[in-house]
Amino acid sequence: MGSLGRFLLEKGSRYRQCLSAVKALSKHRLSFWVGATGTSGYLMISPCLSWEALFTFGGIYCCSAAAHSFNQIIERHTDALMYRTCHRPLVTKLVTPIQAGVFGVGCAVSGLLMLNNTCGALAGSLSLLNIGLYTLCYTQCKSL
């Protein structure tokens, strides 16, 4: 294999690692179901698939992903001690806490903007409150 082939394999491997880290930081399956549940409420009011419904799902998904990212930053030392969580990207140093924080802030801002612009300021405010409650209250109460 030539040097171009090795270069492309290395880049592909790095992109797969990055995608794996993003999926783990966001807890993509759980965030998907959180978004689906919230969007089902939206669809009860406006029962047609639309761009607004898609942005509602995206906003909820991103806010959930942000909360999970912040949770993993706070709990990275505890996660290292438990078998169930010792393979998370912050524990394995696949990403740094700063990178996870930037990802979390990016998800939070984009999610809040989507919800604020699609569903209104109340939805955006409640999502921000939810991120704060999950990160500051729930995460801290788990250690009691």
Helical run tally: 6
Quickly count the domains: 1
CATH homology-level superfamily: UbiA prenyltransferase
H-E order: HHHHHH
Instruction: Indicate the radius of gyration in whole angstroms.
Output: 17 Å
Proportion of residues in helical segments: over 70%
Shape field: globular
Largest sheet: none
Distance between the termini: 55 Å
Q: Whole-number average pLDDT?
A: 91
- Structural classification: mainly alpha
Kindly estimate the percentage of residues that lie in beta strands according to DSSP: under 5%
> What's the number of extended β-strand segments?
0
Query: Which CATH-level-2 architecture?
Result: Orthogonal Bundle
Low-pLDDT runs of 5+ residues are: none
CATH topology: Tetracycline Repressor, domain 2
Write down the CATH class.
Mainly Alpha
Features:
UbiA_prenylTrfase_CS; Protohaem_IX_farnesylTrfase; membrane; mainly alpha; protoheme IX farnesyltransferase activity; 144 residues; single chain; Tetracycline Repressor, domain 2; heme biosynthesis
How would you describe this protein?
This protein has helices spanning 3-26, 28-45, 51-74, 76-79, 97-119, 121-141. The protein has 144 residues and is mainly alpha-helical. The protein starts with a helix and ends with a helix. The mean pLDDT is 91.
